[in-house]
Specification:
Radius of gyration: 20 Å
Shape: globular
Number of strands: 11
Strand content: 15-25%
Largest sheet: 5 strands, parallel
Distance between the termini: 45 Å
Structural class: alpha/beta
Strand order of the largest sheet: 8-7-6-9-10
Number of helices: 12
């Protein structure tokens, strides 16, 4: 297995497998590129910088938002997409190895995006691929592009309030054990200075020791809380995650003892946190007693969950431009105003 701390920095021709491939400088460079392509992502302009390039979109685990976000990002840069979803429709259902699948499919593509239910499996794809591979989620392991868009969103939301990421306090609540977005986000935020993480999870769903250690060793505070109101009290932002029921045994699910809402308006009011920035990687389970972020917070000013999804497109555009070696100048050279009526798009 490829270890995250042995991976080269992310750049042209490189795989993106872990957030540990970034430092603060390379992170800012990616964010600057995301800022550049925002008019393209928002469809004010069109771009053909990836004309002729082909994305192989391989999702061996159910996904809607992440898959469409990656594919939309590639298409908005002028590329083309080939896609497959699920094991049933892949040759791995016939016993083909990950290595063979990767080598064959990478021969059809210029870059691969891969999601797989097993931790470490995307690194196996990368080891056999002849083109760059982007990790779109590997089991309970990492989800680097989600962490990148989360950091970008948090920085933007805090910036609008005149606050920096450095020194902020963020509450992280929900499934901390199986929530790969939490693992990647805490590692990426560890590039900032003096973050305070306030953590709450149900029993049996606590943050893995190695992730907590990673943050502490880099000078950050990690505080375990007994309730959601305690976690959000004094926090600048809250990051809520749904319970990953599909990754749990029945025994673990029963011991977690989850019901009701994970986070709702009453809890925020109790903590005096009605102005807090509210983030969630989605999807959100909006059913009764789902133990997730309640829809009764949707009209609060700090709700940022849909700005997160919008930012996901431009962050993934920046990822593709970086790994395929496209400069800002190359992007600018192929931009033009969109030819269709802008008034027909709802804002």
């Amino acid at each position: 297995m490829i270890l995250a701390d042995s991976l080269p920095p992310f750049g042209p021709g490189r795989h993106l497998l872990s957030v540990q491939q970034f430092d603060r400088t390379s992170l800012q460079k990616l964010f600057d590129l995301a800022d550049l392509v925002r008019p393209i992502a928002e469809r004010h302009e069109v771009c053909t910088v990836l004309d002729g390039a082909i994305l192989g979109s391989l999702f061996f685990e159910p996904s809607t938002r992440t898959r469409l976000s990656f594919e939309s990002a590639f298409l908005r840069l002028g590329g083309e997409v080939t896609t497959t979803t699920g094991f049933t429709f892949s040759s791995m259902a016939k016993g083909e190895s990950i290595a063979d699948t990767s080598r064959v499919v990478s021969g059809y593509s210029d870059v691969l995006v891969v999601r797989h239910p097993d931790a470490g499996s995307v690194a196996e794809f990368a080891a056999a691929s002849v083109v760059p591979v982007v990790n779109a989620g590997d089991g309970a392991g990492e989800h680097p592009s989600q962490a990148l868009l989360d950091f970008y969103t948090l920085e933007s939301e805090l910036g609008a309030l005149g606050k920096p990421v450095d020194g902020c306090t963020i509450a992280i609540v929900g499934d901390l054990k199986y929530g790969r977005t939490v693992h990647s986000l805490m590692k990426l935020l560890s590039l900032a200075d003096k973050i305070t993480f306030k953590m709450f999870s149900p029993p049996s769903l606590e943050l893995p020791v190695e992730v907590e250690r990673y943050a502490r060793e880099r000078g950050h505070r990690v505080i375990d809380c007994d309730s959601v109101p305690e976690a959000v009290t004094g926090a600048d932002a809250v990051y809520a995650t749904r319970v990953q029921r599909e990754r749990m045994t029945e025994e673990v699910l029963a011991s977690a003892n989850i019901s009701g809402n994970l986070l709702n308006r009453q809890m925020l009011a109790e903590a005096g946190a009605n102005e807090i920035i509210i983030m969630h990687p989605l999807p959100r389970d909006s059913r009764m007693d789902s133990f997730d972020l309640s829809t009764d917070v949707d009209d609060l000013p700090g709700l940022s969950i849909f700005r997160q999804t919008d930012n996901g497109v431009l962050i993934r555009m920046a990822i593709f431009l970086t790994t395929l070696g496209c400069s800002a100048d190359a992007v600018k050279a192929t931009i033009k105003r969109r030819p269709w009526d802008a008034t027909l798009r709802w804002n």
